Amino acid sequence: MTVSVSVKHRFSGFDLDVAFEAPAGVTALFGRSGSGKTTVVQTIAGLLRPEAGQVAVNGKTLFDSKTGVWVPPAKRRIGYVFQEGRLFPHLSVRQNLRYGAWFAKRGSGTASFDHVVEMLGIAPLLERRPAALSGGEKQRVAIGRALLSSPDLLLMDEPLAALDEARKLEILPYLERLRDETATPMIYVSHTVAEIARLATTIVVLNDGKMLRNGPASQVLGDPAVPFPLGVRGAGALLTTQVVAHHADGLTELSIGAGRLYLPRINAAAGARIRVRIAAQDVVLATRKPQEISALNILEGRVADVREGDGPGVMVSVEVDGQTVLSRITRRSRDALGLRIGMKCYAITKSVAVARDDIGTSVE
Amino acid sequence: MDWLSPQEWEAVALSLRVSFWATLCSLPVGVFIAYALARWQFPGKQIVNGLVHLPLILPPVVTGYLLLLTLGTQAPLGGFLKDLGIVFAFRWTGAALAAAVMGFPLMVRAIRLSLEAVDPKLEQAAATLGASPLWIFVTVTLPLILPGVIVGTILGFAKAMGEFGATITFVSNIPGQTQTLPSAIYAFLQVPGGESSALRLVVVSLIVAMSALVLSELLAARVAKRVRGV
């Protein structure tokens, strides 16, 4: 299952020129507002016809400006979850959910109604009207509605952007279940690093209508060369860890090779794989193992890369058991420590610095 | 019910029949034209818009005379239709046509306004769920504009019940054939001793008009509530 996309479109004062392939799993389209993300997904869905480009899903051409192929959106079998939900106000939740299944060819349905309703936790809402739902509930119904049309591909255009932090945290676990329990590949548009870090398997970074990077999530997020759309403050590496134990003092112990991380309690069984994003600005470096320090998380590794930016900061990549931890420190600190590539060092971070929405279940 | 004379009854019944058919036949056309004006860009759009609204601005007598000029049996178009067995001039069908033409702008305006209030993004969402344009219209657009369609229908019906100038010019005032309620009131007022008949028909007009208004308000409010889903 692959999606291959190329889009060329001229807007006033802005040229979009992007081409990428999305493998199975969750491909995140990442970039700041106005970088062309929505145009790309609208092109895939057939809601927008760019000046030039091609779209193919599973080898089936849906749009090709050269040969004039154009499959109308209704025949593309591509589910679309919009930022504002776009539920039909005159239909009940149940009718909204069944809307797509009604048009999907009989027998081709892979998504079972009961399973989707259970997975998204919307059973108590079925007889309600969209007007009587909260923002988070609306979005869950919108996701269910798209899934139940049995799409070959699911597009999500900033499905959490209109929600407050609490609602985001409410929905993210459902999206993780979606990723882990359904075979439907997804393209997920967002400008929030935390969301991408939790969900994406592949990341495509867009900036000003051009593609900057395209690769596996941990590689792209751990790459200090990727100038993040949100600036260096958005930079942070993605670590895949395993739950070791839950401690009585409210901390959960995670392993990364021989290293240990202690984070505020995570709801996952021992042995579960958890992904954690650690922001580069929250990581302190030391060349000798620190003693008598309040920070609990001290990972031993080697300096893999030291990269200077425009400002007074440098981005240091530390390799820990085959994974990368990013740390943003000043040039002065680098010189004081004498950091060089290949050197042994310790990456230190506070347990409470890791945000709740930077922790999620991992893809197997 | 013997408080109305046979001639008066005839006028009331004819008016109801004329208005019913005028409204029923113009409704699908009205929805189509309203949709085209609200959603499509096409050359001559302003001309179509002008033609639809013309009966609202022209003196009704002029509209009636224009109908006579184009659809009278002596006119080319009217002659052609006559060969097909369709005659409008001086028939009740002509009264229905005149009523439909006069009520059309009111109907189209009401429907167009409600169409412009429908978020095209909902229709896009329906497309991504596999609905063809026709199904999108039937399952999303039409239910959402239903309050506007109801208001437009009642307005058109009420206008048809009251239409006088174009009707009398186009199809004259033949009792039992083309003498609608307003034409009958006019006729009764022209003869000595006809005031009491005219007055009874005025009461009927008032009752029909008030019932139509109240009914449309109730119906539109109910449907609007259902559509909004609260």
Automatic annotation (TrEMBL), chain A:
Gene3D superfamilies the UniProt entry points to: 2.40.50.100, P-loop containing nucleotide triphosphate hydrolases
Residues in ABC transporter domain copies: 2-233
MF GO annotations: ABC-type transporter activity; ATP binding; ATP hydrolysis activity; molybdate ion transmembrane transporter activity
GO cellular component: a single term: membrane
InterPro entries linked: AAA+_ATPase (IPR003593), ABC_transporter-like_ATP-bd (IPR003439), ABC_transporter-like_CS (IPR017871), Mo/tungstate-bd_C_term_dom (IPR008995), ModC_ABC_ATP-bd (IPR011868), Molybdenum_import_ModC (IPR050334), Mop_domain (IPR004606), P-loop_NTPase (IPR027417)
Protein keywords: ATP-binding, Cell inner membrane, Cell membrane, Membrane, Molybdenum, Nucleotide-binding, Translocase, Transport
Domain of life where this protein originates: Bacteria
Span of domain Mop: 292-358
Protein name: Molybdenum import ATP-binding protein ModC
Species annotation: Neptunicoccus cionae
From TrEMBL, chain B:
Upper lineage: Bacteria, Pseudomonadati, Pseudomonadota, Alphaproteobacteria, Rhodobacterales
Domain ABC transmembrane type-1: 12-214
Signal peptide: none
Entry annotated with the keyword Cell inner membrane: yes
Biological function: Part of the binding-protein-dependent transport system for molybdenum; probably responsible for the translocation of the substrate across the membrane.
Location in the cell: Cell inner membrane; Cell membrane
InterPro entries: MetI-like, MetI-like_sf, ModB_ABC
Keyword match Transmembrane: yes
CDD domains: TM_PBP2
Record field: transmembrane: 20-38, 50-69, 89-111, 132-158, 198-220
Family (UniProt): Belongs to the binding-protein-dependent transport system permease family. CysTW subfamily.
UniProt gene name: modB
Name of the protein in its database record: Molybdenum transport system permease
Origin species: Neptunicoccus cionae
GO cellular component: plasma membrane
Keywords: Cell inner membrane, Cell membrane, Membrane, Molybdenum, Transmembrane, Transmembrane helix, Transport
GO molecular function terms noted in the UniProt entry: molybdate ion transmembrane transporter activity
Topology class, membrane: Multi-pass membrane protein
PROSITE patterns: ABC_TM1 (PS50928)
